[in-house]
Amino acid sequence: MALLFDGDVTEKPYPRSGLSDDVRSLSDPHLSNDLLVSNDALADPAKISVVIPVFNEVETIGLVIDRVLDCGFDVEVIVVDDASTDGTGNFLKTYDHPRVRCLFHTVNMGKGAALRRGFAAATHPYVFVQDADLEYDPADYRTMIEPLLDGRADMVYGSRFLGGAHRVMFFWHYAGNRLLTLLSNMVSNLNLTDMETGMKAFVRERLVELKLSADRFTFEPEITAKAARARWRVFEVSVSYSGRTYDEGKKIGWRDAVTALCAIVYYRFFD
């Protein structure tokens, strides 16, 4: 396995499921080969691992976990607490559910490091990234998993800019996201609309082939550059987005945009 992780980590285990790895799906004959993924259409719900990196989200993490568990798939939830200081870690240490596994960093290492830890712990065939702040809706997994289940894609981006319902927010954040995506597309030769999206999904067998190293928000340009270099089959689908204000807890800012710009160049030409 190529995923590497260095750091001081403690772990809260959960019971393993004895379910098989078979994934079945059912197509609606009335919809020209469209694959429908719903509770009724899945004779045996797809098995997915959902990795949730979290830092100081005590107000939302419980609700996010509940929504992920209710997503309609056979899901294992892997929450990685990145040394939160607001009580998130204490909440997770007392959270008890057979399909939820909680891992803990003793020092803050960043989103990318938390994701690497979660990816290494994932066991199901499809791996999803879920933010802990309610900006992305687990109900969109149904749309995102279609290209993975039918074998068309190795990775799926959930785009905020393809017409899905979204909260109207900051213009300069929107412009910055589009600029970073444009620059990433130029060096990777992809045509994404939302490279920086926090909702991504992968075929686990392909994900573990990559050697990831970004510790913080630079995970997004890193995974994009390395997926393009590995010639992964990449899809985008529209997802809903309920952005937060800074007063509501939003963390990413203009410094992260500058760092992402540098990361686009670094991971394309030097890593």
Class based on secondary structure composition and strand pairing? alpha/beta
CATH class equals Alpha Beta
Mean pLDDT: 84
Distance between the termini: 19 Å
Summarize the helix and strand pattern as letters: EEEEHEHEHEHHEHEHHEH
Largest sheet: 8 strands, mixed
Tell me the domain tally: 1
CATH topology category name = Spore Coat Polysaccharide Biosynthesis Protein SpsA, Chain A
> Segments where pLDDT lies below 50 for 5+ residues?
13-42
Short structural summary:
This protein has 271 residues and is an alpha/beta fold.
Explained architecture:
The chain has 271 residues and is of the alpha/beta class. It has a single domain (9-269), classed as Spore Coat Polysaccharide Biosynthesis Protein SpsA, Chain A (Alpha-Beta Complex). The protein is built from nine helices and ten strands. The strands form two sheets. Strands 1-6-5-4-7-9-8-10 form an eight-stranded mixed sheet, with helices on both faces. Helix 2 links the parallel strand 5 and strand 6 (100-105). Helix 8 (219-229) runs parallel beside helix 9.
Topology:
Layout: E1 9-12, E2 26-27, E3 35-36, E4 47-54, H1 61-69, E5 74-82, H2 88-94, E6 100-105, H3 111-121, E7 126-129, H4 141-144, H5 146-149, E8 155-159, H6 171-188, E9 200-203, H7 204-207, H8 219-229, E10 234-238, H9 254-269
Parallel strand pairs: 4-5, 4-7, 5-6, 8-10
Antiparallel strand pairs: 1-6, 2-3, 7-9, 8-9
